[in-house]
Amino acid sequence: MAERIVLLPGDGIGPEVTEQARRVLVAAGRAVGLEFEFTTELIGGCSIDAHGTPLRDEVIAACKQSRAVLLGAVGGPKWDAMPVSVRPEKGLLGIRKALGLFANLRPAAVFPALVNASALRPEIVDGVDMLVVRELTGGIYFGEPRGREGAKGARRAFNTMVYDEHEVARITRVAFEQARIRRRHVTHVHKANVLDTSQLWVEVVDEIAKEYPDVELAHQLVDSCAMLMVQQPKKFDVIVTENLFGDILSDEAAMITGSLGMLPSASLATGGFGLFEPVHGSAPDIAGKDIANPLAAIQSVAMLLETAFTESGGAKAAAAVRKAVTAVLDAGHRTGDLLLPGEKRATVGCKQMGDLVLGALERGKS
Ligand code: IPM
Ligand code: MN
Fold first, then answer.
1. Which one of 163, 191, 237, 337 is the catalytic residue?
2. Ligand 1: which of 89, 135, 248 to mutate, most ligand atoms within 8 Å of CB?
3. Can you give the pTM of this predicted structure?
4. pLDDT confidence of 366, banded at 50, 70, 90?
């Protein structure tokens, strides 16, 4: 029986990278006996253009009937002037909320072949392997009241950062469970010297930590964490934090590893249902040129396989995808984003990178 996957390519480079990821998913799945049936739906700016809204109920319904969702990116200059309540990004936030995707896993690990691509010195980044566990459906992104009031000269805008203890508890458990299959260390990132929400987080995280005596816990203020991440990134194993801090720190973690173009993510609901997407955005400046890096989307496929198809060979297929990506990078192939400033080296395009990974997958079988 074919497994249903919803593709949400979205805007900008989303469609090009998603197409390469889809090809890799088909090939890696086939090797372990998985067959997929794809439905492609609109989200973000393209949905605004076609239907006047960034996310339709039909799309949410299709996702709910699928085994997993693979998303590209949303947004672009065309829709930038729109109010936040109707922008493309609202589609992404809407689908996270509608599908209950509260746990965002953003692994940032350095590929040995790319240690020199980081803006940091190689000895600092070599061996970095961290996982940002970001709360994704609460906090200031969704808190009410929010809005604007007043006329020019007296304009005011406000957002609310709010967390219920159960939201903190469930994401904390996800982080501790992840730590158990990694290096057994969790850093909770907060701003408890200023924010009440952070004080609640510290309390609840401490309580949940008692369920995991085998995992070490540290609390770290978000500002000093931002500093420590560039100073000693190897210190971090699992980072757990609220929505906005996680948004910012996961971009920082990505850059430490060399390029935002490399980082995958999984957004999971209770029960393990997930949406998988590259951390990078829609990169409108390079969209449609076939020069985008599809490796973040391709690695998101690895996360999809191991999460959604754990019992049907998914872990093996995911390992094969990662091995293929490593082989392609070790062989020296690079998309433009992976070059150092001033580096002279031939680059490959988006589709070509997809072909290379498919080739390596094929060779890896023998
Ligand atoms: C991300 C993005 C989104 C976010 C935007 C596009 C709404 O930056 O997934 O990190 O802020 O969560
Ligand atoms: Mn972000």
1. 191
2. 89
3. 0.96
4. low
Query: Catalytic annotation on 196?
Result: no
- 68-73 β-sheet, strand order: 36-40, 3-10, 68-73, 274-278, 264-268, 103-109, 129-135, 238-241, 185-190, 216-221
Distant-in-sequence, close-in-space partners of 125: CB < 8 Å, separation ≥ 6: 110, 115, 118, 233, 256, 257, 258
Q: Which CATH superfamily is domain 134-254 in?
A: Response regulator (3.40.50.2300)
- Let me know if 330 is a catalytic residue: no
The yes-or-no answer on residue 210 being catalytic is: no
Q: What is the atom index within ligand 1 of the atom nearest the CA of 75? A: 6
> Which residue's structure tokens are 């085998």?
214
The answer on pLDDT for 174 being more than 90 is yes
Whether the Cβ atoms of residue 260 and residue 279 lie closer than 8 Å to each other: yes
Nearest CA to ligand 1 atom 12: 247
AA identity, residue 194: V
Ligand 1: atom nearest CA of 243 is 12
* Site residues for ligand 1, CB cut-off 6 Å: 75, 89, 92-93, 247
CATH topology for 1-128+257-366 is Isopropylmalate Dehydrogenase (3.40.718)
Q: Is the pLDDT of residue 321 over 90?
A: yes
The tokens for 58 are 């039909």
The label of the residue with tokens 């805008």 reads 157
Q: CA-CA distance, 9 to 170, in Å (whole number)?
A: 29
Torsion angle (degrees, nearest 10) of CA 77, 83, 87, 92: 130
**Bond into 77 cis (ω within 30):** no
Crossing angle between the packed helical segments 196-209 and 165-180, to the nearest 10 degrees = 50
Structure tokens at 201: 């987080």
Could you count the other beta carbons within 10 Å of the beta carbon of residue 174? 19
What are the boundaries of each domain within the chain? 1-128+257-366, 134-254
Average pLDDT along the chain: 96
Ligand with the closest atom to the CA of 93:
1
